[in-house]
Amino acid sequence: MDVSRSGFYAWRQRPASVRLQLDQSLSELVHKAHAAGRQVYGSPRVQEQLRQWGVRACRHRIARLMRNARLQGRSNHLFVRKAPFLKFFHQVPNRILDLQVTGPNQVWHGDVTYLKVNGAWRYLAVIIDRFSRRVVGWSLAHHRTSKLTIAALQHAMRNRKPAKGLHFHSDRGIEFSSLEFKAKLRQHGFVQSMNRASHINDNAYIESFFHSLKIEGLFKMTFDQDQKLWDEVISYIQFYNQHRLHSSIGYMPPAAFEL
């Protein structure tokens, strides 16, 4: 098709369509929402973040703008190392299967995950509140022992000061089944609960947190010092508690959900 030079420049100088102008404005907000989520939000959380800012847009449109800007959410599958079990695992049943959780400090979940520094394993123990998904206690150590999980429990106690009767749930790892850890729970009047045999999903709440930490917080990072790893873990926990939108609690951050 023949087009004159003057006609081409006249076309280029025409104002952008209303839809294109709206897309450009919305794209800027999509970038801001993606950045607010530490560059890990996909279109559902970006849409919710925009909604909380008073901006309405359909998910398909947001997904299209994100594709155009090469913005991606972060998701992946992780290999999970499980702790060795005690032979007498039947001694502690799962006591929270039918428990209705109506507020904070009724059920806590604890677990330990593996992280690397200079090619050597470090062990992170974390405790979350089931009601709000808030991380309430944590500890990092070179060895996976009851000292690690007791330190995380004491941290959670200082942060929350819960009443007696709280249910503490974990897997059947030896660091939770130890006599020392059980004694600490009894000292504070807590009720211990553990996964049923071969039911790893009984502790899915905290497995979900570890997945988010590794995919959203520590993705492709390497560490040559314990302090650098610790700083990143603390940074992510603060983001997770105060800002991250959780679909399971109405796309609210845990701290806001508890208010």
Automatic annotation (TrEMBL):
<dbReference type="InterPro" id="IPR001584">
    <property type="entry name" value="Integrase_cat-core"/>
</dbReference>
<protein>
    <submittedName>
        <fullName>IS3 family transposase</fullName>
    </submittedName>
</protein>
<dbReference type="Pfam" id="PF00665">
    <property type="entry name" value="rve"/>
</dbReference>
<dbReference type="InterPro" id="IPR048020">
    <property type="entry name" value="Transpos_IS3"/>
</dbReference>
<dbReference type="InterPro" id="IPR050900">
    <property type="entry name" value="Transposase_IS3/IS150/IS904"/>
</dbReference>
<dbReference type="Pfam" id="PF13333">
    <property type="entry name" value="rve_2"/>
</dbReference>
<dbReference type="InterPro" id="IPR025948">
    <property type="entry name" value="HTH-like_dom"/>
</dbReference>
<dbReference type="InterPro" id="IPR012337">
    <property type="entry name" value="RNaseH-like_sf"/>
</dbReference>
<dbReference type="InterPro" id="IPR036397">
    <property type="entry name" value="RNaseH_sf"/>
</dbReference>
<dbReference type="Pfam" id="PF13276">
    <property type="entry name" value="HTH_21"/>
</dbReference>
<dbReference type="GO" id="GO:0015074">
    <property type="term" value="P:DNA integration"/>
</dbReference>
<dbReference type="GO" id="GO:0003676">
    <property type="term" value="F:nucleic acid binding"/>
</dbReference>
<feature type="domain" description="Integrase catalytic">
    <location>
        <begin position="100"/>
        <end position="259"/>
    </location>
</feature>
